[in-house]
Amino acid sequence: MEVLEPSIGHDIRAITEQIEKESAFLDLVSFEVHKAVVGQKYMIERLFIGILTNGHILLEGLPGLAKTLTINSLSQAFDGKFSRIQFTPDLLPADLVGTMVYNQATAAFQVRKGPIFAHFVLADEINRAPAKVQSALLEAMQEKQVTIGDTSFLLQEPFLVLATQNPIEQEGTYPLPEAQIDRFMLKIRVGYPSMEEERLIMRQNTTDTFRSVQKVASLEQIMKARSLVKQVYLDEKIEKYILDIVFATRTPAKYKLDKLDNLIAYGASPRASINLALAAKAHAFLKKRGYVTPDDVRAVCADVLRHRIGLSYEAEAENVGSEHIIAEVLNAVDVP
User: What's this model's pTM, rounded to 2 decimal places?
Assistant: First the structure.
């Protein structure tokens, strides 16, 4: 980065020192989660980014890759309320948010809150539920509130939706509408463990050597860290870099990417710019820095953009994915 003015440099040093002290709880949480989860360092780091920025996360991966175990272990380490909702084609909005129940003793209706009222909500196989259920979840994700009857209830903070979907099963699924998928800050693709990691997983499951996850951090520490993440310095040149990346997905020809014109049906939304800046700040926080570098932006770019770029029929015919387009954009846009 360029040489900063003395006052700005002093502020960054002060923020960096504060981050080094305040981020220590995440190291403890990571250690606890790894008691139950072997590997998956990338997924856990991205979950931390979602927690630090109040952003929801979509996890895409094959069955058996510890998605549910990781999220459950995370909630135990923070001692937060955890809810797991198995999405099915016959699920109703009331099964998610709650409903009005008639109480015979009082001869009146009373509210029975649903599983959405939790700190960490796992929406398992979210693409198996119909549109009316997904729209009920949309209000909770965007407005941080739920309407039951004629009353709205604020959800407790922190509130994080972690949704999973299976990439290989299409039968009996409902693709997420663009309006909803755009509400997810990150889309993470979870891969297979290495052979050594799978050896440890096999041993854990065949010798009963699981270790329980203990509470090592509080929800208040999350809220405090969130306010600190917003103070991470984002230089104007980095802002321009983020905007160039996003605008290159909308008007690729202006960035000498004419070859992408026929491959992109629509580019990333303004939420991409916001979330790319926030995720880069959180990534810098995790690296215990008080300022954002281009490497922070590039590290989280694919996770922020992969679900926000619409592919054309030509791209699908040529078997070109959003990962390829993002790589081309990053190679074309000038790095500050």
Answer: 0.86
